[in-house]
Design goal:
The protein is mainly α. It contains twelve helices and no strands. The protein has helices at residues 3-24, 26-45, 48-54, 60-93, 95-100, 108-134, 144-171, 175-181, 184-190, 206-210, 214-226, 233-256. The protein is elongated. The two termini are 30 Å apart.
Length: 261
């Protein structure tokens, strides 16, 4: 069999293997997915009125519209933590060493983790978005093209964060360390424009929130979902995603090609 069909066949097998982990270990996926859903309900129903007044909104529905884009990206961050744990488990429990002895395409192991993680991330985003719609989120001003662009941005962010998470899983000595190493992917959205505008933050803290990858991605997704202006955030978000995806890919590939542990 030639190289390309072999790569496609083996990669498809590894993607199925990655997705089967969701069925066999549902508790990990559910625990990571519950975090953004709980935050969504907490901030809308407990802090919604006060936070909406702080951003000039009329009621909690205005804050729900502001909050949702950040929580959707936090959902991706939570999902890829599970990817880091899965990769670390594979690396430390010997299955990758077994794969190295088999006649399979070498890159299919990484492709399986990455594609499976992106699919899980997109599915998780759809689920959290459905919860938001159920509690009152509406997007009357966004066009079909903007919805399509929003879906593309979500997929691109998921791809970039997944490659970073794969590298974090490979350098971790065990699953617990992988979970801790990937924690910044959940923490960074908390110190971005996800919950409050950057202009409302203290002056010394504002650069931390402004000059990080999640803020332009959140602002871009917010503009696409609400039909508002994006400005320079769109190109900046895409650039961040491409850079992180490239760095994560090179890092993960380099770690994978090292001698097995």
């Amino acid at each position: 069999m030639s190289s390309l069909p072999l790569a496609v066949r083996d990669s498809s097998t590894m993607v199925r293997r990655s997705l089967l982990h969701v069925r066999r270990y549902p508790s990990l996926t559910l625990n990571l997915l519950l975090t953004p859903i709980v935050l969504l309900l907490l901030f809308v129903y407990v802090f919604g009125e006060a936070m909406s007044a702080g951003i000039g909104g009329a009621d909690r529905s205005a804050y729900l519209a502001y909050l949702l884009p950040g929580l959707l990206l936090m959902t991706i961050g939570s999902t890829v933590v599970g990817t880091a744990v899965s990769v670390s488990t594979d690396m430390t429990e010997g299955i990758v060493a077994r794969f190295r002895t088999m006649a399979i395409h070498r890159g299919s192991v990484l492709v399986g983790h990455v594609v499976g993680s992106v699919l899980r991330s997109v599915a998780s985003v759809v689920l959290v978005g459905a919860v938001a719609v159920a509690i009152g989120f509406r997007s009357a001003d966004a066009t079909a093209l903007e919805w399509l662009a929003a879906f593309g941005l979500v997929t691109l962010v998921a791809l970039a964060l997944t490659w970073i998470a794969v590298g974090m899983g490979m350098v971790s000595p065990n699953a617990e360390a992988a979970s801790n190493n990937a924690l910044p992917l959940i923490v960074l959205p908390l110190i971005s424009s996800a919950f409050v505008p950057v202009d409302a933050m203290p002056g010394w803290f504002r650069p931390i929130a402004e000059y990080q990858p999640f803020t332009p991605a959140i602002e871009t997704l917010r503009g696409l979902l609400l039909g508002t202006e994006i400005g320079h955030n769109g190109p900046l978000a895409v650039a961040w995603c491409l850079v992180l995806a490239a760095l994560g890919h090179l890092w993960s590939k380099s770690l994978f090609n090292r001698d097995p542990r």
